Amino acid sequence: MDLLRRLMAVQHERGAVDDAALQRIARETGEPLYRLEGLRSFYPAFRERPGAPARIAVCRDVACRMKGAKGYARRLREVLSDVDAEVEEVSCLGLCDQAPACAVNDVSLSGAAEDIRDYSLGVSPLPLSPETPPNAPMPTDPHPGPEAHYATARALIGGSGAADARRDRVIQALRDSGLRGMGGAAFPTGDKWAYTRQAPGGPKTVVCNADESEPGTFKDRALLEWQPHLLVEGMIIAAWVIGAQRGIIYLRHEYERARRALEQAIAAAREAGALGGDVFGSGKGIEVEVFVSPGGYILGEETALLEALEDRRGEPRNKPPFPTVSGLDGRPTLINNVETLAAVPVIVERGADWWRRQGAGDYAGLKYVSLSGDVRRPGVYCVPWGTTVREVLELAGGVPGDRALKAFSPGGASTPFLPASALDTPLDFDAMREAGSGLGTGAILFVAEDRDLLDIVLAQTRFFRNESCGKCVPCRVGSHKAVQQIEAALAGEGEPGLDDHLETLNATLARTSICGLGQVALLPVVDALARFPDEPSFRVLTSKEAT
Amino acid sequence: MSAREISLTIDGREVTVAEGTTIWEAAAALGIDIPALCHSPGLRPVGVCRLCVVDVGARTLAASCVRECEPGMSVRTDTDEIEGHRRTLTELLLADQPETSRREVSTGDDALYGLARDLNIADVPFPDGAEAHPRGFDDSSPVIAVDHQACILCDRCVRACDEVQHNDVITRSGKGYDVRIAFDLDAAMGESTCVACGECAAACPTGALVHKRVLRAVGTSEETA
Hints:
A: five-stranded mixed beta sheet, globular, B: three-stranded mixed beta sheet, three-stranded antiparallel beta sheet
């Protein structure tokens, strides 16, 4: 962490991490030059040479693309043409509900090109943000107000009775609640805590994966900005249960507002005695810190995240071993998503039964969903598990322009699109899998009937190609070649049987890639080709004759 | 105190090995040569080329060079599915190879070419990368000829330089499809802290890093096939 933090400090101060800076760091730390080159060249936050004083990054991914990101980038270049500024395209910023989105010197925002110009020139000092946080506690916040924050941790950790029995009860409550990982992998949370607690060795660490970068997903952004105290409390409880004294929040650097909110929450937690040397009289110290990622979607892959924390290139590890057994520095590490950890205080406070009752029918709990694309009121919604996609769409005002829905993808770029006939699928991991897709992060992207579906699924595959770390052959080369071949077909230079070829290539990526990115990279296209056989935009790939 | 022993089956044959043995090693003990490009005994395995993948009955195939044997494991190294993936992975790598492998024309032991022969690969169904996306030569070192186009990012030179010789010169640089190897802060090899020990060229399975003396000896330094 120290080396990357050092590089980021240099980048922030000087606008670049040049060779002279790396030579100096090498002398002072004893690190070989090659390691510093490896880090500088891998992470998007670092530049070799300072660019223009105003750097505008425009999102190129699917929700923003649907809202005219290409034209937006063009307009921004026009209004900034007389200024020392550079406009570049970047991957999903997590502002899909405010598409098209951009970032000015790492502050994410959206707005008219002229307003962005004014902000980047310092004419208007306030970052534009139409969002205002809710002024009442959110549905998963058990605390009536700030003065009650951390009360659940206090009662638990400072409570009476054998400490281990209290820890057992927390794990049982998590198991009974049915809580599963909200980062997309859906691993049962109670089990993960139990394994990490039991794993031999230490010191153990709790890591919050706050690197939310899956296109269409921004629920963690809302949770971090509006109720950071729940995450901090969840981490404190996790640390106490598994026997860790350290918590690290791995935060994407595009979430600057969230970072400030987290630092404030951490300070407030310390004031409340929830962090520090002897937490609530337990005799154990717990500390939580924020680590800002130097960038890249792959850092949301848990082992790539660990590599970054160990000051290496963020390239996923082969698994097994899993982080619960061998994580940060080879020790047992609990890694959970923001939403997962933020759900812990209310489950501990009100019990698993309360949590289960919040779900629709036999489903359990509350889910934060991110809605974007062709929907009237995009944003983050908190809904009971088991709510159907149709109900959520109605809640958000339906498809604008009275258009019918062509398709939706329920869980981010990794999850295949389903047709409108699947709208009555409940929001649930198993139900969504049975329907042919996956709930993933609960990021629902709606696609209206007049959209070009090939353009949309290709945007997803391009995202994975753009974000590939490059370590393993199938993903590094396969994702690149696939996009090349599809683009050639779109340009009229396609080869017959491209759909069969992509299916073969997809199978290799799915079965041989080291990590989930490679495994799903071609799935959006290949699955859609099979699932939407009448989609006109696919003819260019399914044609049996050369185009 | 001896290590715990583990029994498993590989391609229907039972084998007992010490705990910590990888599937690749256990297979080798049975005389099963699982193909690999990034793996070389003597180097820490990294499992990046994915040629050595085997079926252990899980959702994805496991890289046998890094995957440790587990008690009762049932491994298949030779299914039709696996052969298909080996073929695709080899084709992907061949698509970006230069016209000539300096290793193949000098010492005749380019491992990627050898794999292509073993798999009977004739046509490569992927767009050529050498013309569209040339990665360049680096002839600056007096000892090692660098052909970035022939590099398959197997990481063998990185481990050879950093973990065997501890000269600490070579890294992967960049990200995604544009990744290539680099010396120090991406200097030309001849201008870096490289001491020309030759370990990288000895480790390299393709024409990416070749000993110049060998090229001169067979008179092929400028020749193209």
